[in-house]
Amino acid sequence: MPVQYKDYYQTLGVPRTASADDIKKSFRKLAREFHPDVAKDKKKAEEKFKEINEAYEVLSDADKRGKYDELGADWKSGAEFRPPPGHGGFGDGQTFRGGRAAGGEEFHFGGTGFSDFFEQLFGARMRGADGGDFARRGNFSPEDFAERGADIEGDIMVTLEEATRGSVRTVNVRHGGRAESHQVKIPAGISEGQKLRLAGRGERGGGGGENGDLYLRVRFAKHPDFDVDGTSLIYELELAPWEAALGAEISVPTLDAKVNIKIPAGTPSGQKLRVRNHGLKQGAGTRGDLMVVTKIVVPEKVSAGEKKLWEQLARESKFNPRTS
Question: Which domains are delineated in the chain?
Answer without folding.
Answer: 3-220 (1.10.287.110), 226-316 (2.60.260.20)
